[in-house]
Design a protein that fits this description.
The complex is a heterodimer of chains A (331) and B (332). With 331 residues, chain A is α/β, with parallel strands linked by helices. Chain A is built from 11 helices and 12 strands. In chain A, the strands form 2 sheets. Chain A has an 8-stranded mixed sheet with strand order 6-7-8-3-9-10-12-11, sandwiched between helices. In chain A, strand 7, helix 8 and strand 8 form a beta-alpha-beta unit. Chain B has 2 domains: 56 residues, no CATH class; 230 residues, MetI-like (MetI-like fold). Chain B is built from 14 helices and no strands. The chains are: A alpha/beta (331), B mainly alpha (332). The interface between A and B is medium-sized, with 31 and 23 residues.
Chain lengths: 331, 332
């Protein structure tokens, strides 16, 4: 970790609910974590565990019926200086930060790009609305350089292409180009390769790694792919049903997982560090978050569950300076 | 653009089979009705057999179906077809009545665009509020109200009670550029004339467009909601675009389905014209067709159907061209 422990984002006690017809979905339930400058921080977990919602909450991108109930997102604009609480900013102040200082890469590049405008225009308008250039035309020239930097083949022609004329991998390169066009400090990559072919996935991840090094970015990577985690991340937080159950240094997590869910998760996917003979599935299903299980949300599926787990929420326990776990087994 | 040109030519060629098909179907329906057209044209039961014989000869009524069809189309195209009932050249009749219908349709279309689209946008922006509900109820009323009933109600209000509109005559200026008085009076900046035209046509236009307003409001609302909740809109927010620019993206994407519906509406308006023209006593193509049906003048009917289909096809043709400009995914 080359962060020298200077934080860039500090999420404190975040709660997000979705008010649906079926009831109130308690999607994020007291999530706290810190991302340090220059690192790649990972959120892992199953579909529906709240990874994406957490990522979108950082800049208040949650749309109705979702609502951020409470919490703080402290953003350290300059290292060591006073942070600002992003959740307290006005819509216009947030707009200036989104895409310029904190930018996103979403899962499906085909859906992220507006089908009616060409790639160059979409890169260009992103810079124009943040005042980086004085005309859309100027942006087209810059867009060619940006496309070059994301290793788009034949950028001079591609800049005038529409999304439907590009392959999935090229579209995601274009999206990455848009995200990096304003030289952001933090890039939030929300499952950036899920919608792509396996071979293209590798290329995109290599590209992200290369760009991170070149531009000295901080990356928040959201994924359910343990292979990606091992390949990319410095620190990992494992989420389950709207809570972070365990957070650790990447090597620590793979070598010494503590939470029963983390252990089960690592047994369920090919482990990049340890060889396992047989993959095991986790019994039971993801809980309905309208009526989440009381106490520890994992207890109905946990083989070590005790009486206490059913009624009391487990506290955060720091087993070392880089490893915390929320489980009664370690108190 | 060479591709576009080739597409347009190809598209124009498809007019031919469509027009033949439409007129042939109308002709076959008229031909299989068990009646004696010549006798009806000649004056019914007591008609002079000599006249009947002459009509049968003149209009080739004894030939095979294909022969008769060919005869009608040939005469129509060479403008030699004289209606056996009105004794006018059919094209002349149609040309005289066309301006009435096109004015009616244009005004109805303006109502649809000016009321239907904003209502849909407002409903989408205020979704799930009372505004949205009100618009949806209005749209439902719009599609389910019988137009003749609404027409009489509004005639009672605006003509009988308020006296704002006129119900007789067809105002026509003494100059002609396009042949359509509405457009001519605007081009000439002849406002008294325009006022007269609007007095005569604005209520029938509204009645004709009423159903379309509801349909359009609904489609606009749904396609706007689709665009608002689309992933690219979320990404537009995530990259910090300005509000107006995001609306521009939403608007353009929402417009694609709306244009299709508007094109179809235009054709639908022409089809709906007979009832409205009848109620308001407007001598347009619609009432011409009704008249032709009543008098079993299927020759005039085929001519009118041909004419209306041609306008319908042209409207769709324009929609196709618009598509090419709005949506880059459309390739020909």
């Amino acid at each position: 970790m080359k962060s020298e422990h200077l934080p860039i984002i500090e999420v404190k006690d975040l709660y997000v609910n979705f008010y649906t017809y079926a009831g109130v979905v308690k999607a994020i339930d007291g999530v706290s974590f810190t991302i340090y400058r220059g690192e790649t921080y990972c959120l892992v977990g199953e579909t529906g565990c709240g990874k994406s919602v957490t990522a979108k909450s950082l800049t208040k991108l949650i749309r109705p019926p979702g609502r951020i109930e409470k919490g703080q997102v402290l953003y350290y604009r300059e290292p060591g200086k006073e942070p600002i609480d992003l959740l307290g900013l006005s819509e216009e102040e947030l707009r200036r930060i989104r895409g310029a200082e904190i930018s996103y890469i979403f899962q499906d590049p085909s859906a992220s790009l507006d089908p009616l405008y060409n790639i160059g225009y979409q890169i260009s308008e992103t810079m124009y609305d943040h005042g980086l250039i004085s005309s859309i035309k100027e942006g087209f020239l810059k867009a060619v350089d940006i496309l070059k930097s994301v290793l788009m083949p034949d950028p001079e022609t591609r800049v005038k292409n529409y999304p439907h004329e590009l392959s999935g991998g090229m579209k995601q390169r274009a999206v990455i180009g848009i995200s990096l066009s304003n030289n952001p400090r933090l890039v939030i990559a929300d499952e950036p390769t899920t919608a792509l072919d396996a071979t293209v996935q590798d290329q995109i991840m290599d590209l992200l790694k290369k760009l991170k090094k070149e531009k000295n970015l901080t990356v928040l990577l959201i994924t359910h792919n343990m292979g990606l985690v091992a390949d990319m991340c410095d620190r990992v937080a494992v989420m389950y049903a709207g809570r972070i159950v365990e957070e650790a240094d990447i090597y620590e997590l793979f070598k010494n997982p503590l939470h029963p869910y983390t252990k089960a998760l690592l047994k369920a996917v090919p482990n990049p560090v340890k060889k396992i003979d047989k993959l095991e599935s986790i019994p039971g299903t993801v809980p309905n978050l309208i009526y989440p299980p009381p106490g520890c949300r994992f207890h109905p599926r946990c083989q070590y569950a005790m009486e206490k787990c059913k009624s009391e929420r487990p506290p955060e326990i720091w087993v070392s300076s880089t490893h915390r776990v929320s489980c009664w087994l370690y108190s | 653009m060479a591709e576009l040109k080739r597409f347009l030519v190809r598209r124009l060629l498809t007019f031919i089979p469509t027009l033949i098909g439409v007129t042939f179907i109308v002709f076959v329906i008229a031909a299989v009705i068990p009646t004696d057209p010549a006798r009806m044209w000649a004056g019914g039961e007591k008609a002079n057999p000599k006249v009947i014989e002459q009509l049968e000869k003149e209009y080739h009524l004894k030939g095979s179906i294909l022969e008769r069809y060919y005869f009608i189309m040939y005469k129509l195209f060479t403008n030699q077809m004289v209606s056996p009932v009105t004794h006018h050249y059919i094209w002349d009749d149609l040309a005289k009545r066309f301006p009435v219908t096109i004015q009616l349709t244009l005004i109805a279309f303006i109502y649809i665009v000016l009321i239907g689209i904003p209502l849909g946008i407002i409903a989408a922006l205020k979704r799930d509020t009372w505004v949205d509900t009100a618009v949806r109820i209005f749209a439902l009323i719009g599609v389910s109200t019988p137009v003749f009933w609404l027409a009489y109600l509004l005639i009672f209000l605006f003509f009988t009670q308020l006296g704002w509109i006129t119900l007789a005559g067809t105002p026509k200026p003494d100059y002609s550029i396009t042949g359509v008085p509405l457009i001519d009076s605007i081009l000439h900046l002849d406002f008294p004339m325009l006022a007269q035209i609007l007095q005569r046509y604005s209520l029938p236009g509204f009645i004709l467009g009423f159903m379309g307003i509801g349909i359009t409001a609904r489609i606009v609302r749904n396609s706007f909601l689709d665009a608002i909740s689309a992933d690219f809109t979320e990404f537009a927010h995530a990259r910090g675009l300005k509000k107006m620019r995001i609306y521009k993206h939403i608007l353009r994407n929402a417009l694609v389905p709306v244009i299709t519906v508007l094109g179809l509406q235009f054709g639908g308006l022409l089809g709906g014209a007979p009832i409205t023209e009848r109620v308001f006593g407007l001598p347009g193509l619609g009432s011409y067709m009704l008249q032709a049906i009543n008098q079993f003048d299927y020759l005039a009917l085929i001519g009118a159907v041909f004419f209306v289909s041609l306008i319908y096809l042209t409207a769709n043709f324009i929609v196709d061209i618009l598509y090419a400009f709005i949506d880059p995914r459309v390739r020909y």
